[in-house]
Each structure stands twice: as C-alpha cells, then as structure tokens.
C-alpha cells in the first residue's frame, strides 16, 4: 500500500489536470439520441426468494430467504418474516470477484488449483454433499465460497442468471462519474502491476477500490503463503482443501480491512490538496500545456520510430482478426437487445388492445419499465456475448481471458436497454398527456413511439459499439507494445524530466507522456480498422460521417423528468400504500415489482419454492388472499433431504364405492386419477376406521383436494367405515416440508 500510495498521488495530480483541461477546452463524442435515467433502481429491489444454503459450521443445509437490494449485495435471512421485520441478515455477500457455477465438476476443477498436486475426485466432493442435483456455487479465488441448491432445473437456470447479474454488477464497482479518482486509481493500479512485470488485462480488477487493492496484494501474497503453508497441511484431501480455504479466507479478510482503511486515508489526503492544485492549474493552464507539448515532442522523436516499427511487424497483421473476434458476438448481443425490446413492446400493444386499452396500460408498462434489470429476460442477450473468444491471440498479446471484455459489453448492453425503455416511457407518456386515446389509436401511438425509439437505438448502439471496439483494441495492443518497448526506451526517459519546470512537475510525468506517444502511434490504425468495418455494413454499424438529425429537439427536456409511475396514473386506481422494506412506501405495484414463480409444466407454483422478484413481471395479489405461512425448518439429515426430492403431501378427496374397493385392495404403484388428473403413485398404505357420522372428526374432515400438488406421490389412504350407507375415503400425502395438519 505504501508503494501504491506513492503512485496514486502522482496519478491523482495528472488526472486532476486532465479533468480541468477537459472542462476548459470541452470536447466529446457524438451526442446520445436516447435519454439516460439517472437512478434506474431507485425504490426497486432486484429479487427475493428461497434457497437451500449449506452451513459449514454444522455441515447442514438450511432454508434461507434471499433478498437482493439495488446494491446487488446478496443478503440471506432465517425466513421472510425476519426480513419484513427489518432484522439483521444472517449474512451478506458482495459478489465482486466471484464466479457463479452450476456443477460440482467445474467447482472441483477450480478448487484443485488452490493446492498444487492435490486433486479431489468428483465422487468424493470437497467436504460438501449436495442436497439435490441442482447446485449453485459462488467461487472466489481468495474469499469464502458459498453453496446453495434448488429443487428443479428451471429454478437453477433462473437463479444462475440472477447470481451472474449480481457478479456482473458488483465487478463494475468503479464509478465513471468520478472524473478524477477513477482514472487516478486505474492508472495507478496499472502502473503498479507493470512495475512488477504484469502487463495486459487483469481478471481481478473487480469491485470497489479496496477490493481491487486487496486482490492486488493477494496476487503476490497468495502464492507465497501457499508454498509456505501448503506442504504442512495434514489429513485427507478434502480436509487439506478445507483448511487451506479457511486460511485463505482469514488472510483475505485481514488484507481487505487494511486496504479499506489505508485507501480511505489516501483519498482523504489527496482531497485536502485538491483546492490548491485546482487553483494552480487554472492559473497556469496555458503554460502547463505548452510545457507538456514541448517535452512530449522530444519524447515522440525518440519513441515513435521504434513504436511504428513494432506496430508494422507485430501488431498490424492481427488488428483485423482481433476486431472480427470482438465484433461478431458483441453485435449479436446488441441485436438481441433490440429484439427483446421489440417483442416486449409488441406484447404491450396486443395486451392493451385486448385488455381494456388505457386502463390496463399502466399494468403492462410497469412490466417492462425495469426490463434492463430483469436477469432472466436479459440472459439471452448476455449469452450472445459470452461466445466471444480470443483463442490464438490471448497468449500473443498477454490477455488472461476475454471475461474483461465480455462483462464490459454486457454492462453497455444493459445501459442501452434501459435508455431505450426510459425514452419510450417518456415519449409515450408525453403523447398520452396531450390527448386521450383508446383502442386502435392507442396502439398506433405505441407503434409510433416504438419506431422512433428503435431508430435512436440503432444509432446509439452503433456509436457505443464502435467506442467499445476501439477501447478493447487499445486494451489488448497497448500493454503488449509497452512491454516490448520498455527495455529499450525506459533507460532514455529520465533526462526528459529535467526539461519540466518544477512548478509543473506534479502535472506532467514522463512515464505518462511515453504511454501517450505509444497510444498515438497505434490509434490511427485502430480508427481505420473500425471505420472500414462500418463501411462494410456487416454488423449494422453506421459510418462516422453519418450523424442522426435530432428529430426530437425537445426530447432532452424529458430526460430531466422523473420516471413515470404507470401504476398510479394508468393502473385503474389500484394504489394501496405499502410501507414494507421491499416497497419503500410505493404503491402495491412497487412493493413486489415482480413475482416470477417457477412452475412445473402444467402445475401451479410449489409452496416455499424460490420465487424471483425481478422488476417488470408483477402479478397483483388478490384481495383477501391468505398470507404465506412462515417457512418450515430445514432438513437435518439425509433421509429428510430425500423427501425434498420425492415429497409426500397430505390430501383428502371423496370416493365412491368402486374407488374404495380399489384403494382398499392393495393398489399397485402406478398412475391414479385425482380430480381428473393422472398422478404418479409410488406407495399406497390403506387404513380403515369406524367414524360416527356426528362425531367431531367427521364434521371437520376436509372435502376438497388441495389445489397445490407435487409429483411423484407417496399416498396413505384412510377410509371411514360404513355409517348409514355413506362412504368417505381420506387420501393423505405426507411431506416433511409442511407442518402436519389434523384431518
């Protein structure tokens, strides 16, 4: 941290100079056509639901209520009631740096790399026995691992998309709004790693500054500790892996606590000096720029010939292939964003026309208002970009993996989706305020707004992608060139520092100017490659010469308006206030946002099965609905876990004489028709008892089959005796998931 702090202070002054210069001189790229929402997740929770979590303390699985707020931190509670009461969570996970896995094999491969020479077999498992065949694992190279599981493959798919979204958002922890701190920090990290011989992209540039610094420390400390402690670990393979993971977690916690405190002190020290540096910059800006250009010219004369030679020999032949590898999956992803957005708007038009026009519009618009933050609906877009591969180029240009570029593209896709949705909302709301519309006229208005937004999306998508391609090419090529040029150029750089006035030496650094010269040498080739790709029109890119005429001159004024509360204005007056933690005081629409229940084919939602609350897909609760019971206790042994896979539920149905004869004569396992539906029966037990017609047990016997059912069943039937010619059969399906209820 001492070494990093010195580099950070230098880069802070340089970043402040660049920020003030940009403020004075202006500049920037093409203006965005779509509106940008400032706080898209304000008053919104991401999702919540139930999962089984493995507790390492007692080696048991527990049912936990999981809640993700707008920070994307994963918090888990004893049950839903504990969350609603505002109790502290059992734990919270910041997903930065994690990987979301869905198979034990993949997890074992990653764990086996933690201790060289120690590789566990898939069958044995590293001290974790899955309760079901659908695991969800959060793996981190240094921090604690977290184990979850669900009951169905559909649940696993949805939860995996949600956890991936949490990881994606948490990794993007550096704010682009900080025009000084963020550039200073990223440049300081890069220069610090380059001083240690690490060029190229870095997978652990994840999370906020303290987390990134902790990863920076662990990059060196982790292998040293492993070589020192690893050979001394005793016991079986699983025990050695477990002990090493506990040690790694403890060390990482200590490192993170120190980097947190020291980084805060470092930033505070720099901010104290900011007013003085800012005043000096604004006073002497012209002289500082002149001095920098003078020294930069001399460095360019030294470095440029060597850089151009390296460029022609080792870089130019690969630029087009790198660009093509980036463009193909990225363009497919942005195209999928457009298709998803289009399909949702078509659905809105159809539902509005068939469901009552303007009165139902609020409900449908509320479903898509947070479409960009719906992990499941956006998953098809993200999967397109995950196909990005730089195979054959990674080793040459020292690219550890394409994950850095994949996640950046996914973040941009989400931003463009939200911009498109927000712009559509504002345009539609403006049209509806001007005149009352219903039926076909309303659909035409929706269609008109849709066409305008799609045209703007195509232009902004092209602009964003071209910028992404240029930045990605620079991230791949510049570190390679710096690594190749450093041995021959660095010894000649120190004399140039003497040409800089002492008063300006805080803002002009020779190392930074050297990198700027290398950047300028390759920028022309990168710009030309992207321009040629746009001319070919293979990936729906606009030419640089094409500037979209602003057909909505007053549109930017709508960008200052708050998000439209569709439920309140067009939702038919259903505005029950909710003061629960999830609702933040918003209406009933805002309280739960989305309940995306995972259902088995042809069946209703399963009780206590995980449900995602993702903005955009809300189903309003019926008035007078029975509140959900507190979650049951989790299973404590293997036998009870097996019941989770083959549940047994208690049911009661009336039966005729023929049904009674069938049930009491040792029915074989197979298919049994209940309420017109065939259900699989694995076990039938028959008990016959005499019940008086006027007894309490007779009067309290349920007469209807429960609407919620789970297959396959284990049935236990209880039939009453013949009392005055009336037969009654009780079919009881028992399950440890639910509290037993007396019949």
Automatic annotation (TrEMBL):
CDD domains: Niban-like (cd23949). Transmembrane segments: none annotated. SUPFAM superfamilies: PH domain-like (SSF50729). Residues 615-624 have a biased composition (Acidic residues). Residues 44-168 form the PH domain. Residues 566-588, 613-637 are annotated as: Disordered. Pfam families: Niban2 (PF26086), PH_Niban2 (PF26089). Belongs to the Niban family. This is Niban apoptosis regulator 2a. It comes from Oncorhynchus kisutch (Coho salmon).
């Amino acid at each position: 941290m001492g070494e990093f702090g010195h580099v950070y202070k230098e880069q802070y002054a340089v970043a402040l100079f660049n920020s003030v210069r940009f403020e004075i001189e202006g500049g920037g790229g093409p203006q965005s056509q779509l509106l940008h929402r400032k706080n898209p997740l304000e008053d919104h929770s991401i999702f919540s639901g139930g999962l089984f979590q493995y507790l390492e303390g007692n080696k048991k699985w527990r049912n936990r209520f999981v809640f993700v707020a707008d920070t994307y931190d994963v918090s888990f509670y004893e049950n839903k009631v504990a969350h609603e009461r505002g109790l502290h969570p059992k734990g919270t996970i910041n997903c930065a740096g994690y990987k979301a896995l869905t198979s034990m094999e993949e997890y074992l491969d990653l764990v086996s790399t933690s201790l060289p020479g120690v590789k566990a077999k898939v069958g044995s498992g590293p001290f974790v026995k899955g309760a079901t065949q659908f695991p969800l694992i959060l793996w981190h190279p240094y921090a604690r691992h977290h184990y979850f599981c669900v009951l169905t493959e559909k649940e696993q798919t949805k939860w995996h998309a949600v956890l991936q979204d949490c990881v994606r958002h948490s990794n993007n922890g550096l704010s682009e709004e900080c025009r000084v701190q963020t550039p200073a920090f990223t440049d300081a990290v890069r220069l610090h790693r380059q001083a240690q011989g690490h060029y190229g992209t870095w997978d652990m540039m994840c999370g906020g500054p303290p987390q990134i610094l902790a990863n920076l420390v662990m990059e060196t400390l982790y292998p040293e500790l492993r070589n020192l402690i690893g050979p001394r670990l005793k016991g079986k393979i699983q025990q050695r892996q477990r002990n090493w993971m506990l040690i790694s977690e403890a060390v990482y916690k200590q490192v993170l606590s120190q980097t947190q405190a020291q980084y805060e002190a470092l930033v505070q020290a720099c901010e104290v000096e900011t007013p003085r540096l800012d005043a000096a910059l604004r006073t002497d800006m012209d002289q500082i720029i002149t001095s920098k250009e003078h020294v930069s010219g001399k460095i360019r004369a030294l470095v440029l010939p060597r850089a151009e030679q390296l460029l022609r020999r080792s870089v130019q032949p690969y630029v087009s292939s790198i660009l093509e590898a980036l463009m193909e999956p990225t363009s497919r992803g942005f195209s999928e964003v457009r298709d998803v957005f289009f399909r949702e708007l078509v659905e809105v038009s159809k539902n509005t026309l068939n469901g009552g026009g303007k009165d139902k519009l609020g409900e449908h618009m509320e479903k898509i208002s947070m479409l960009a933050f719906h992990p499941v609906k956006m998953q098809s877009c993200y999967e397109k970009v995950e196909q990005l591969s730089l195979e054959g180029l990674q080793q040459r240009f020292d690219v550890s993996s394409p994950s850095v570029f994949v996640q950046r593209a996914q973040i941009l896709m989400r931003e463009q989706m939200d911009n498109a949705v927000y712009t559509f909302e504002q345009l539609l709301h403006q049209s509806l305020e001007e005149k009352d519309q219903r039926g076909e006229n309303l659909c035409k208005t929706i269609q008109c707004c849709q066409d305008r937004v799609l045209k703007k999306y195509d232009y902004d998508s092209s602009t964003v992608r071209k910028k992404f391609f240029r930045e990605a090419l620079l991230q791949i090529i510049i570190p390679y060139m710096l690594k190749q040029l450093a041995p021959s150029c660095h010894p000649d750089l120190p004399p140039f520092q003497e040409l800089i006035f002492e008063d300006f030496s805080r803002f002009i650094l020779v190392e930074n100017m050297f990198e700027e010269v290398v950047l300028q040498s390759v920028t022309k080739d990168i710009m030309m490659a992207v321009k040629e790709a746009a001319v070919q029109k293979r990936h729906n890119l606009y030419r640089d010469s094409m500037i979209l005429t602003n057909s909505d001159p007053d549109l930017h004024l709508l960008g200052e308006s708050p998000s439209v509360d569709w439920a309140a204005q067009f939702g038919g007056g259903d505005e029950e206030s909710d003061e629960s933690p999830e609702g933040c005081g918003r209406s009933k629409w805002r309280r739960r946002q989305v309940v995306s229940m995972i259902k088995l084919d042809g069946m209703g939602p399963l009780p206590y099965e995980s449900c995602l609350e993702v903005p955009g897909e809300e189903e309003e609760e019926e008035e007078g609905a029975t509140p959900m019971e507190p979650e049951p206790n989790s299973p404590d042994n293997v036998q009870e876990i097996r019941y989770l896979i083959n549940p047994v539920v208690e049911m009661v149905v009336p039966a005729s004489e023929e049904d009674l004869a069938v049930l009491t004569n040792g029915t074989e396992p197979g298919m049994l028709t209940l309420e017109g539906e065939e259900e699989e029966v694995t076990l039938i037990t028959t008990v016959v008892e005499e019940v008086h017609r006027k007894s309490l047990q007779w009067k309290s016997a349920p007469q209807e089959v429960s609407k919620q059912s789970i297959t396959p069943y284990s049935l236990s039937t209880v039939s009453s005796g013949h009392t005055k010619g009336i037969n009654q059969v009780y079919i009881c399906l028992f399950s440890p998931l639910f509290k037993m209820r007396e019949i």
